[in-house]
Amino acid sequence: MLVTLEGLDGSGKTSCIGALKASPSIPAATYTREPTHTWYGEAVRRSLNDDDADPLAELFLYTADHAAHLADVIRPALDRGELVVSDRYSDSRYAYQGASLADRFETPVEFVRELHRPWTRPPDVTVYLDIDPETAAERSGATNKFERVSHLERVRENYERLLAAEPDRFVRVDATEPEETVVERVVEAVAQLTAGE
Asked: Which of 148, 146, 113, 116 is nearest to 47 (CA)?
């Protein structure tokens, strides 16, 4: 099973991943993230800090990182029968790069999804940490172009489109609650989802 955690920057994904790793109610798993810690991921991180990076070129950097992640980590772990938990995955690209490309394509989220559809491995379940853009920007420190409120508003709208299109895949958690509550709800949700593993 492939479980992904998604949400705006500052929604608490990193804290939730730490709690999942430490919880005795969660089966042993391969924990991973995007962008990765490979040279592909390093290229992505460099583009994050470049306000002048071309959004389409940036999409392909993220896509290359995702393709390598699938080939080197995700598919091998799933082939071994392991639970895989990823901090961000393809939905981040649909939401974030879809927002970045809004001025270039009529339906940018669908453009990005179509680019991935022939070869990516969709998540089985996605836990979506829902938070408003203002709180997200405040928590994350708005340290790069993707963490600014105006961009996060478009990103959140894209996430809502994704949830509406596949409601059975997503588990929404209110990430404005205290951190302990959010973490507890995520651990409970993943424990229930993986109980049959």
From this structure: 146
Q: Is 106 exposed, middle or buried (0-12, 13-18, 19+ CB in 10 A)?
A: exposed
Phi, psi angle pair for 47, to nearest 5°:
-70, -30
Calpha distance 197→78 (Å, rounded): 12
- What are the tens digits of pLDDT across the range 109-158? 999 999 999 999 999 999 999 999 989 888 877 666 566 788 899 999 99
Look up the CATH architecture of domain 2-193. 3-Layer(aba) Sandwich (3.40)
Structural domain boundaries of the chain? 2-193
The DSSP annotation for 104-155 comes to T-SSHHHHHHHHHTTT----SEEEEEE--HHHHHHHHT--SGGGSHHHHHHH
Residue 196 pLDDT greater than 70, yes or no: no
Q: What's the residue count for the chain?
A: 197
Tokens describing residue 24: 């005795």
pLDDT by residue (tens digit) across 119-129? 999 999 999 99
Contact yes or no for 126/171 (Cβ under 8 A): yes
